[in-house]
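Record type: ASSEMBLY
Status: queued
Input:
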Amino acid sequence: MSITVVGSIAYDTVKTPFGARERMLGGAAVHFALAASFFEEVRVVGPVGEDFGEAELDVMRRRGVDVSDVERVDGGRTFFWRGEYGWDLNSRETLDTQLGVFEGFQPKLSQLSRSSDVLFLANIQPDLQREVRAQLPHARFVALDSMNLWIDTARDSLVSAIADVDCVILNDAELRQLTGRPNLLAAARDVLSWVAPASSPNGAGRGPSVVVAKQGEYGAALITEEGFFALPAYPLETVIDPTGAGDTFAGGLVGYIAAHPREELSDELLRRAMAHATVLASFNVEEFGTERVERLTGAEIVTRIGELRSITQFSGTPVRLRH
Amino acid sequence: MSITVVGSIAYDTVKTPFGARERMLGGAAVHFALAASFFEEVRVVGPVGEDFGEAELDVMRRRGVDVSDVERVDGGRTFFWRGEYGWDLNSRETLDTQLGVFEGFQPKLSQLSRSSDVLFLANIQPDLQREVRAQLPHARFVALDSMNLWIDTARDSLVSAIADVDCVILNDAELRQLTGRPNLLAAARDVLSWVAPASSPNGAGRGPSVVVAKQGEYGAALITEEGFFALPAYPLETVIDPTGAGDTFAGGLVGYIAAHPREELSDELLRRAMAHATVLASFNVEEFGTERVERLTGAEIVTRIGELRSITQFSGTPVRLRH
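Status: finished
Output:
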């Protein structure tokens, strides 16, 4: 069952302590699509400028991604981001953002993109996320990412957007900011309590049932009504460039769920999806931009899933306690 | 097999967003001893002042802790710390530190304390840690904690102290600062490569074989020559006071290892010890100071170990990958 993603397609100029790249292929929709392409066909919706190359589209095509809804805007420039990471890669500074064709972007979805049963709303203005969501009212599973900018400037719209999806994928700091609750569990329970109003085009009374808190180098946590699950990041001795890790994570998560259309959205399925998300993200950060994921193989993913299991297990040997 | 711990015995005045306490029982050796007391007998070495009450000693005695090496200094004042936590409990400000009897403290270990086969050097000046270490040359397992102050002011002595122990337990930021390596795995491998010099009283060529990185609310990671293991923190909706969490964690870890003297120090044993450390720390933060751990029961620990297992497991169901 195919996946539609709406979000940025970008050129990124990135500097990390380990090197730099000029105008490499990036953007949330691109990182998401490459990761999710290991599980299902992905249809990318988003604008690019006249400067966007066929070679970049071919990167996605080679992974079976449908780019027919990538809209080339005459006379426009592709979204551009320039940033630099600090020595431990946990801090990053945005040095330049040029919206280009994203300014005034109105998502146009083809019949095919509207027929996907899984939808990912990557980090864009929440009004746009809601417009796209409304075009796939019958999607089986809808997930959403966002960022601090929209919590600061468009919180009401973001809350409405969240009430109309099944799964929210945010950094843990963003979850805290969004809810005003410092405790992660309490913040997640807040979000799980939000429901779409009666006026919602997508059905009143629905609301998110899954919250995923991305924790960067520490891993990620999953909170549902049913329970809690957490995974560390896959340990790497060399991390080169974290750009796109969050979107690659989302691509692994949403892709895995899309590939299991007959399974109920249980915690057991979500945990396996979290593991695949974690592994996909770990490959992404090993090289700049999309370089590593472009030549990733299914066999490599399977091997690392096994390793991730082994580094998170402990035996249940009974203990001897004194008192 | 009993455990000796040397470290601070303190009065803490703490304010968190959830309340405050004046001059409550605290200190690294106290938190460690209460946690480790669930596994083995603990002997506490450290000074207190004339102001230190019998009621506070009784808190330890009730958990079977041997306080006969707690040295009461005539005319002295007990170590005092006053601090305040920020809204998300991840930042804390030290408002006052009064060393009191810790100024000029020379650890005096009784024959009994020197006969323990497990030793924990809580966070004190590294020269003092080395003096105590030298008094237990035949200990089977020695672990050490430290802090950024000693990395800044006494790094050489700290490195020597580390080279003479089996296990280093530090915050991940401290590990990075200590080694100058931003990557956690690389930092840990650095520490694992340090060996005691030929002049060491405790045997040349030995060095740490276990590094534990405490990651606060994100959990903890274990790095050995053999492998890597990570556990999230036990999820809590209400965290009241993180003071002493790290020492309680160390008490669970070292206590568990002490209680299994016939088991080789394998990763499998260390993983179980990490789980018990995680669970002990989770109880500690549920109330102020030692309040929760004072009335903790073995049954509660066992229950939470089971819960911790269940929130970290995912199934190995084979995946269907497209490419």
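Annotation: Chain A touches chain B through 62 residues (CB under 8 Å).
Annotation: The first helix of chain A runs from residue 28 to 36.
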